[in-house]
Amino acid sequence: MLSFIGALPGAVSQGLIWGIMAIGVYITYKILDIADLTVDGSFCTGGAVFVVLFGSGASLWLALLAALGAGMLAGMVTGLLHTACGIPAILAGILTQLGLWSVNLAIMGMKANVAINVTDQANLDRLLVSLRFVQDVAKGTRPFYRHPILVVGVFSLAIILVLYWFFGTELGASLRATGANPNMARAQGINTDTGKVLGLMLSNGLVALSGALLSQYQSFADSSMGKGAIVIGLAAVIIGQVVFGRVFRNFALKMLAVSLGAVIYYAVIQAVVSLSNINTNYLKLISAVIVAVFLSIPYWKGKYFHAKVKTGGAAHA
Asked: What is the domain range of residue 9?
């Protein structure tokens, strides 16, 4: 139990970082109604771009902006493959993801991973988030406002507020209409192809931004760091929907629920690993089981819980 409590701040921090990626998945999965598999590649792209630029002396914010832009380019490629070439969205995402594997290696100089030099104190202090900050704040050697939970939490809230504003504009409403009913959207004069491309760009931009934050947190970018990202993203979306669906009705609160869903996911993973002392080689299997359970809950609720309510109602009638 003590090991779980000690590891919980790190799990929450990492969950919040992945929560930004999950918000990007929410845009394609829930708003555009597209299963986009680009995220496994664009997540790594964001991390690779950030580490290379930051390591070469670029400012933190410029490196983050470049990571965001790189992710948006990846999303644009997927969108054009889908809309301009007529390739199904899921296959277009797979093709982009496949190409990004080589692109990411090229960005990192054909190395499997590139590290940030955090042994240099000046370099470490330039970072926005780091696993070392969790330990430093606990020891009292770094102010509490540098704790990754607080920093990433504020960062996530800012992103949610900007997205809430954007989807309230005419352009944002056209994106929501494109996902809700493409035929009706076209009848209203909305260019649904443009909307899909823009939505995929926005989604993968957020995914890459999350990858850049994670590469800071763990102090390196790895060519396989995005493997399984879509599963984590979908898990966060479903967990947020299952746990907070009845309470969070507002659009901004739904995005907040997705972010909290990622936190719950990582807290559960950490609890299983810490409390059971299970071999970490089984982590992928544990993740798959947890995701499967949360994905099944809406179905079980609809099939068994509502069925009992209807049966009971008929009996009373």
From this structure: 2-226
